[in-house]
Design goal:
Elements: E1 9-15, H1 21-34, E2 39-43, H2 49-60, H3 68-92, E3 96-100, H4 103-113, H5 118-128, E4 136-141, H6 144-150, H7 164-180, E5 185-189, H8 194-214
Parallel strand pairs: 1-3, 1-4, 2-3, 4-5
Helix pairs in contact: 1-8, 2-3, 3-4, 3-5, 4-5, 4-7
This protein binds adenosine-5'-triphosphate and magnesium ion (MG).
Magnesium ion is lined by residues 21-22, 100.
């Protein structure tokens, strides 16, 4: 953990719409449950009652025309609340935290997708969590069009209703993040069958937990 006073482990899951984040997190939780490992699973935006209200505003109010900068600030508002109430206390207590999306998603969706630029996102990151980065980020890589096919039967939310070009910028934004901080990412080929993606992810997390324990953590 890059914040020495936080003994927990922080793992985030990223990827474009339909890449399989929720499916993978369910599988990882199953692996952890079988091993009796304690964890907190959360998601962004949302994750606790206050943040879910922000999520509702961000994703499910199609009638609202939310400005790109306001969208970015609301994402960080939800994140600040979730960090304060849930993520930081769990990490301080030495727990494993799994989050379905985190700040990389703001770089990808608002920085690249909405074309606000990485600098604006970095400025907010500096305010909201200047010293915290995930210990590991699982990036589910999938061509945008394939993710859309996977989700074609579901009603799109406000952001998912964007055009293909938006999601191509999002995917390129994620790739830029990976180039900036390659040591933090595990890249997963999300076009593989879900059970194969899950076994790669579970093996990596088991290794990380082992390494963490041998370094003297609970
Ligand atoms: N590896 C896979 N191969 C084929 N289909 C998959 C795979 N992983 C997930 N799916 C299916 O694709 C759909 C989208 O998966 P999922 O909801 O896990 O994606 P997501 O990344 O969480 O999407 P969102 O960004 O909307 O939350 C689901 O119907 C799921 O069953
Ligand atoms: Mg999901």
């Amino acid at each position: 953990m890059n914040q020495p006073d936080l003994p927990g482990l922080f793992i985030t899951f990223e990827g474009v719409e339909g890449a399989g984040k929720s499916t993978l997190i369910a599988a990882v939780r199953h692996c952890l449950d079988e091993q009796g490992v304690d964890y907190l699973a959360t998601r962004e935006p949302g994750g606790n009652p206050t943040c879910e209200r922000i999520r509702e505003l961000l994703l499910h109010r199609h009638e609202l025309d939310i400005a790109a900068t306001a969208e970015l600030l609301l994402m960080f508002a939800s994140r600040a609340q979730l960090l304060e109430q849930d993520i930081l206390p769990a990490l301080a207590a030495g727990r494993l935290v799994l989050s379905d999306r985190f700040t990389d998603a703001s770089y990808a969706y608002q920085g690249a997708g909405r074309e606000l630029g990485f600098e604006q996102v970095a400025a907010l990151e500096q305010i909201v969590h200047p010293h915290l980065q995930p210990d590991l980020t699982m990036f589910l890589d999938l061509p945008v069009a394939l993710g859309m096919v996977r989700k074609q039967d579901q009603q799109p939310d406000r952001i998912e209703a964007e055009a293909l070009a938006f999601f191509e910028r999002v995917r390129a934004g994620y790739q830029r993040r990976i180039e900036q901080q390659p040591q933090r990412f595990m890249l997963l080929d999300a076009s593989l069958p879900a059970h194969q993606v899950a076994s790669q992810a579970c093996a990596r997390i088991a290794d990380l937990l082992h390494q963490h324990r041998t370094q003297g953590h609970a």
